[in-house]
Every structure is written in structure tokens, then in C-alpha cells.
Amino acid sequence: MGSVSTDVALIAKVSSDWSRMSPVLQEKVPPGRYLADVVVRPALPEHVPAVLKVAFEHDVPVTPRGAGTGNYGQATPFDGGILLDLRGLDSITVNPTGTVTAGAGARMTAMDKVARAAGRDIWIFPSTKSSTIGGFVGGGSAGTGTIEKGTTSDGYVVAATVAPMDGSGTMVTVRGEDLTPYIHTYGVTGILVDVEVRTDPARDWAAVYAAFPSYDELVAVHRTLLDLPQLPRLASADEPALVPTLPAPVALDPARYSLRVIAEASTVDELARRVHNGGGEVVAVLADYAETDRLSGMSYNHPVWFLQRAHPDRSWFHMETGGAPLWDHPDAVRAVYDGPVHLHLELFRHGPGAMVVAGYRGEEAVLAGIPELEALGIGVHSPHQWYVDRNVGLATETARRTDPKGLLNPGKLTSTPPVDTRVNIGVR
Q1: 310 — alpha (psi -120 to 50), left (phi > 0) or beta?
Q2: In CATH, what number does 1-202+385-428 get?
Q3: Which pLDDT belongs to residue 415?
Q4: Level-2 CATH architecture, domain 205-381
Q5: How far apart are CA 252 and CA 295, in angstroms?
Q6: Which sequence spans correspond to the domains of the chain?
Q7: pLDDT at res. 420
Q8: Whole-model pTM?
Q9: Residue 329 and residue 373: Cα distance in Å, rounded?
Q10: Reduced 3-state DSSP string for the chain
Q11: Mean pLDDT, each 10-residue run in order, the chain (428 residues)
């Protein structure tokens, strides 16, 4: 069944993820509070159903884990039991149809390298490209490539091999609409063993850095990028307060608004023209493909982490949002929380998204802002929760069949706070 370990340090390490980014989760599910009893790392696909069969027979909870780069506590083993570390399943195959099939533990960086060598571009990457494909499909949603291709639920996944927790010790191949209850459901409906994802013919991409003197000028260009002849893979933007903490390979002016785009090479001149006509300046165009990865690493919630790291004396939180008011009425958005409030912008296929970043003044204040944002016409996803919040009914219905004892990633199908199990597991 691969490797089995009860090493104290290893258990502590793999029993938590990057949920510490959320001050709310830091209070509720801090590292070290909820620990697995044993770490099992399968080496072959067939090891997964074998582990689940034994766990089912003995009523042992199983929590799946990839690289641990998730931000919501999804990989936290609330009820102890087995932490199933899937990183040993890292095979990668480019299929004759152009799709890529990879073991759940394969890193997206490795998948990209193999696919690019075969002349293919994988549709979507998470902003943390070192994540595993199983973790991304099971717990992620959007990322680099989303502007054109949507989310992990929009045809990205062709098929998946899933191991249910029903005592059968089997695996099944799931395709088409039947994949829905296994995407972004944190493994509560079955363990992803391998995943097949779509690709396109590889293109030449460039990392473009631009700067603007004002938010309005930045937005005026940001919103036009949906009209480029070839949509960019990514278009991130930050207000000056966030700019100094970004690990960019070029000097960024901390007094100006930063726009960073992964643009298809043939559109770079047009992009530069729009920046110039909009009152901005192109700071750099980096054609090295590796630089697009670096730029991607400054997208989505990463600027929030960089801000937290640069200012450890202050607690910052963020709220994931989307909607045209982020472009059109930013002051109203900022006014929802006590200042200072900063916006990190992203571009989606239907408009802008943003991390609304503010100083943390308690969970009540964080949650009170959600209805206020919604009243402005802003869609909100809270990164301060650990439970499944998408296709919940379908996931619950599926889990009754695939996990009748409720042993897969317990506590993730409910918003009820987990029970503190430290008294049960003892001092490790």
C-alpha cells in the first residue's frame, strides 16, 4: 500500500494547509489542532482502493491531500484517522488526442513541462503552479487560463478515475456531467486517483508589465483586454499599497498602479498600444516562458500573502469577489470595510474579479461585509470556510452512495465547526 508513517513531525506537517492565510481559520483550525493518526502514501493507483477498503471495514476516516497549497482547511483531518498523501501518484501521459492524463499527485509544473514538450498548453493552472492536479480539480477552481477557458467545471476535466469509500475496494472511470460531484468537493464523494484534462496547441506567451498613474486609467485598459484578438492567460492588477511586496523580476513603481498580463505574443504590440493610449507605460515585456510562471505567482490571493508576510505586525484578511462595480464603483466597494482597504484585480471571461483586502477586526466584521458587497452587485466567495459550498445537494446525494459511512474528509459537507479532537489523540 505504499509507505505508512506515524512520524510526529510528518503528521504535523501534512495535517494542515495554507488556511493560515485566513485569520478566521487561523483561530478555528490552526496548524497542530487537528492531526491525523497515520500518513499513508500510495505508490500505485490500486493502492488507493485497497486503503479505502481497509479503512471502511474498520470505520477509519480518510482525508486526501496533495501538495497542501489549498487555503481553506480542506485537507485538515478533523476526525484524525488516515491522511492519504497522494503525491506518490505522479505519472503523466500526453494522449494521442492531445489531452493529458496524470496521477492525482502530479505537480502542475511537471504536467506543463511534459505538455509543452509535446506542443500542448494545458487549459488552466492554479496560481500556485506547484499544486497537484488532484488538489486543483478536487479543491481549486480558477487560475491562469481562466479568462478564456473558465473554471475547472467548464469542460477542463475530460475524465477521472475515482475510488469510492463504499467497501468495494474498486475504482471507477467518470466522464462528462457525471464528473460534477467530484470537482471542487474536497474528496467527500470519492478519492481522485488520476485526472484527464484538456489542452490546446501550444502558443508563445509573454509576461507584460505595465504601470498607470490612477485606478481609473488602469481599469480603462483592464476592461478592454477581453477584446484582444487572442485572450490573455492572465491579467492581474494592484493598487500601489500592494505593489512593493510583489516579487517581480523588474522594478515596480510603488506610487503607480501595476498591471501584469500573460499575453499571446502576437497581441503584445496591440496591448502596448492600449496601455500607451490609456495613459500608462509598458515597464517590461519578457518573452521567456518561465517568466510567465513568475507573473502567475503574483496573481489571485498571492498578493495578499505577500502583504501579510511584509507586515507581520498587522493582521490582514481578504474576500474573493467579482462583478462590474469593482471597475465602476471601487470607492463603494472599499467603503464596506474599515480602511485602509485595497483591491487586487483579476480578469474573468465576463468581467473583473478582486481580492478585497482589509485589516482584520474579527470574524463578525468580516462576515458582516458580505451582504453589503452583495447589495452593491458584487458576487462573493468567502475564503474563511472549510466546507463544500458548490453543488452541495449533488455532492451530498452522491456521498450517500460513494461514502455511506461518512468517512471521507469528515466535516467538509457541513458548516458546523469541527470538534477539537486534541483530547482524543493525545500529545504528539
Answers
A1: alpha
A2: 3.30.465.10
A3: 66
A4: 3-Layer(aba) Sandwich (3.40)
A5: 13
A6: 1-202+385-428, 205-381
A7: 54
A8: 0.94
A9: 11
A10: CCEEECCHHHHHHHCCCHHHHCHHHHHHCCCCCCCCCEEEECCCCCHHHHHHHHHHHCCCCEEEECCCCCCCCCCCCCCCCEEEEHHHCCCEEECCCCCEEEECCCEHHHHHHHHHHCCEEECCECCCCCCEHHHHHHHCCCCECHHHHCCCCCCCEEEEEEECCCCCCCCEEEEHHHHHHHCCCCCCCCEEEEEEECEEECCCEEEEEEEECCHHHHHHHHHHHHHCCCCCCEEEEECCCCHHHCCCCCCCCCCCEEEEEEEEHHHHHHHHHHHHHCCCEEEEEECCHHHHHHHHCCCCCHHHHHHHHHCCCCCEEEEEEECCHHHHCHHHHHCCCCCCEEEEEEEECCEEEEEEEEECCCHHHHHHHHHHHHHCCCEEECCCCCCCCCCHHHHHHHHHHHCCCCCECCCCCCCCCCCCCHHHHCCC
A11: 90 91 92 95 98 98 94 91 98 98 98 98 96 96 97 97 98 97 97 98 98 98 97 98 97 97 98 98 98 98 96 94 98 96 97 97 97 98 92 96 97 73 34
